[in-house]
Amino acid sequence: MSLKQIVLQKVDKRFGDVMALQQLSFRVGSGRHLAIIGSSGCGKSTLLRLIAGLDRPDKGEILINDELVSVAGKIIRAPHQRGVGLVFQDLALWPNLSVFENVALVLAAKNIARSELRTRVNEALQLCGVAALRNRKPSEISGGQQQRLALARAIVSRPDFLLLDEPFSGLDLITKQDLIKQITNLAQQQGITLVLVTHDPFEAAELAQDLIILEQGGIVESGTFDALLKHSATPIMQQFRRHIRDVRGV
Amino acid sequence: MEFADWLFSGDFNAAIVRSLLVAISVLLFAIAIGLPMGTATAIYAFRGRRLFLALLALPLMVPSFLWAIGLSQILDLAHITLDNKVLRGLAPVYVFAAFATPLAVFAAFLATKSLSGTQIDAYRLAGSDGWVFARLMKRALPITFLTTLLAAIMTLSDPGPGQIFGFSGAASEILVSFSALYDFDLARRQSLILALVAIVVSLPFIVWYGPRLSSALLAKETTASRLAHNKKVRRFAPMVYILMLLFLLGMPFLGLIKPVLHGFALDYAFHELIRTVANTLFYALSAGFIGTLIAIGVVMLFAGKKRAILIITLALLIMVVPSSFLAVSIIQLGSSLSASWDWLFRSRLIVGLALGIHFSPVAILLVLKRYSAVSDSWFDAARISGVSMIVFYWRIIAPFLAPALALSVLIISLLASSEIGTVLLLRPPGEDSFPLSIFTVMANASESLVSTLCLLYIGLSAILLILFWHVLVRKSA
Lengths: 250, 477
Description:
The structure holds two protein chains of two kinds. Chain A is α/β, with parallel strands linked by helices. A six-stranded mixed beta sheet of chain A has the order 7-8-9-3-10-11, with helices on both faces. The termini of chain A are far apart. In chain B, helix 2 packs parallel to helix 6, helix 8 runs antiparallel to helix 11 and helix 11 runs antiparallel to helix 14. Chain B is globular. The chains are: A alpha/beta, B mainly alpha. Chains A and B meet through strand 7 and helix 2 of A and helix 18 and helix 19 of B.
């Protein structure tokens, strides 16, 4: 039986003269949630796009569940065949479809029987707390509800891995906490492994056990969140450590 | 003196210069009036603001020669004869200004409206009302200039007013070569020269201002600014609008009223309308659909924001090519092909095709604007969800573009319905449109009949405009 894991081996990605990612290698194992943090433009979103199969690596290999899905210059497994769901940074909700249709279209593409489709869509909307809004358009619901809808769309196909590209940006603290709780519960219930990309160590601390710190396209440090919180020499984690100490001091 | 003699000679090059002088005068007049009015309308509140804007759209829906007929009636009434060559040139300037000034107003209005509320607030924090107004006018100038330039260039290929006032411009010369002298080769050469002149004159401005138009067109839609209140503007703007509407539209309209004071020739007018309504609708709608299809093709083919400037430049270049050149080229192509192509080249569809190509830039700009709002991540979301591209385009992109497509069909149809040059050159025998039938009978029919026909046309356009305005107001509410 194959292990549920994502493995990157010496992956490079370049955009023109800019080296977005270089010699990137890591593994995300089943049930261990990973956060990738780093400043803007360090290659975080590019990394998610490579895992999702939306871009191809220039060098290296990507394996999902022990199967080779991308090699240098080539996508072997199409994005929808990888067992990953992705919540986009801008959510990418289709504006002219209702909440229900936004989620249903994902399953419609998989030739699922109509009754089962309806059941699964309703289930996903229920899990994400937007079932009551099923007939509304994305523009007619709040930012937090849109975020939940994007989440419902990403999990409805029951992926093994859920990739989250800065999913909490622009949300108020209470909504953010609600959503984090919801994602954690979802991941637990559905056995989904999370890969979160963020520039905020607070979000990472809430959702992930493992952490990768990315700078200029390369991994600077990696390990468990607790270990890095204690020993990391990176400015972002030092700042985070200082902040926690100050708050506890109060 | 020698130049003056040459300028009013029968030489075609002189006719081009005469037409260019008219176009430049129209351009200057329209910008001088349209830029401040459009800018003020975009940022200040005053009574009747929306209604004035709607009324300004009327001249765009009516062929220019109808206003020329009205103006010539008023001149008759005032016993003013156009025996002076300069006066004869000023009359078309007046008529074309009624078409170009509203466009300048709309361009300045939209260019200013493309600024977000906070951007305008930032201007307001930096200086006085007058300073803000001057800055906003300066900002709107490139797009207003480019739009008005295109309108001015389009006057080069409109023979209507010139025919009525006895002003022989380039378009009139081409019409005479084709329809009176039956010298197709001459008409072709003249059309080619006119097209080259139009391109050479407008190309530097298109290259210069095209990127500005591109960035304004592709700017993200932002929250509109709140309208400001200014005592002077509130008091004077409605008066300026009323004066402008009276001057540009009211006078020719009164001229059309005069001959029908003793009775309408309604029977004949309705007979003509019924005889030509099917053709008019066919030409207009086929042009609308063809122009929109061309736009979809161009935008999809060259999709991508980096190529937007290329698309816009292409659209503007198509727009400046005189319609007579396109029509004459189609005639030449049709005559060089075998008879098996007659189903197209001798049909009404060829008129729709020519008009569709000519007005396709309007659709290209509208579709491009809407398509630029499509996020790349929508495609990515479809890919990761396994939604096929056919389903994606059918379920997501097509409905998203639908409002822009409907609007472009509507606008092109309205513009095409009032075009006479292309219809005159390409229509199958006897298949006149309504405006062409007015243009054809105006020389020989009674004043009363011509005026009735013109008023009927304006009345129908006004009804369409009111319906359109009603829908827009309801939608914005």
